[in-house]
Amino acid sequence: MKSGEHFLLSLPVAGAVLAAVGDRCSSGQRAALAGYGLSLGVLIDLDHFLLARLRVGDWRHVRNCLRDPKRVFFDQKNLFEGTGGMANLRLLSHVFIAGPLTVLTGLIDRRLGIMTGAVLYVHVLADLLRDNEIV
To answer: Whole-prediction pTM value?
Structure first.
């Protein structure tokens, strides 16, 4: 799934968590929590670069994006050419990160843990639905 789609899916998730938090946070805390949730929904995909590194043995995919940053937004389909099928590894990596990150952020702040778990659950679910051509 593309980054923009993950961002759009993270909007209602972050909104629902913020609605549940209600007035128990200051407006600044709510803004920070929303920013965290929206960023996490997209930035979790940075693990793809590490997976690509493990698959091909170098950082060419990172270097290519740093040389031509617009590829990240306009050519996401071809960002990881030559890496073979990474779909299962990508999902495994997300799950491997999501569980511990949810627990750790929950230990820091319960609301942060809820946001982490909810956003990453929706992210992985969306990837599974797309990979299985359901949506």
So the answer is: 0.91
